[in-house]
Amino acid sequence: xxxxxxxxxxxxxxxxxxxxxxxxxxxxxxxxxxxxxxxxxxxxxxxxxxxxxxxxxxxxxxxxxxxxxxxxxxxxxxxxxxxxxxxxxxxxxxxxxxxxxxxxxxxxxxxxxxxxxxxxxxxxxxxxxxxxxxxxxxxxxxxxxxxxxxxxxxxxxxxxxxxxxxxxxxxxxxxxxxxxxxxxxxxxxxxxxxxxxxxxxxxxxxxxxxxxxxxxxxxxxxxxxxxxxxxxxxxxxxxxxxxxxxxxxxxxxxxxxxxxxxxxxxxxxxxxxxxxxx
Length: 278
Hints:
Layout: H1 2-6, E1 19-24, H2 34-46, E2 49-55, H3 59-68, E3 75-79, H4 91-101, E4 106-115, H5 123-140, E5 144-149, H6 152-162, E6 168-170, H7 177-185, E7 189-192, H8 202-210, E8 216-218, H9 240-251, H10 255-270
Parallel strand pairs: 1-2, 2-3, 3-4, 4-5, 5-6, 6-7, 7-8
Helix pairs in contact: 3-4, 7-8, 9-10
């Protein structure tokens, strides 16, 4: 059992419509070189996950993600400083994040937001950094990708106070139906990770059923949050295919309908070229 827990799940059958993994961490999955990235995205494409957005959480990761997005045409990037790393977030860090976020293949500012689960950064530092990232997303005209862990009320309050960018993505949405309604009413997009496949995630199941087409995405947050029935094992972008199928069952829709919805939503939010084939 120990060895199995360290193994990647099997690559699932190909989805009927290709989708985008809206949030993954290729470097944390073990990718270092361009060849590593290509091999990882090749595995994803076999499952119908044809494109990915690789996301940074610190400056080293941001530099790598922005560079990796130039290595393979199926890869884009998002850069920001993760809220748990904002204890020291000064002018030099801001200047570097802004430079990287301005790159053509960086399609979002993120992940940024608030994390009240861990205590690595004071809440006031997190909130100040969050406000700065909101402003950056608006100045660059790019989507804002939010990390919200046990901080729903403050995240929503600060977005309202600052004025949200035109596109806001709640990465790995973790709220219940009531929070989902508030986000949807504000025009925000909810991104569902493997957590929505967990049997005990009743609030997430309700939230997923609420979302009209065009208001939700699918992500892996790989190498974390591997979908059921492989929970606890390493994750890769192809895992998004498991989540798409689970979402379809939750919503009582055909797999191709959910896949088409998350593909077109990702293309619209991230301004990706349209792909109409499976």
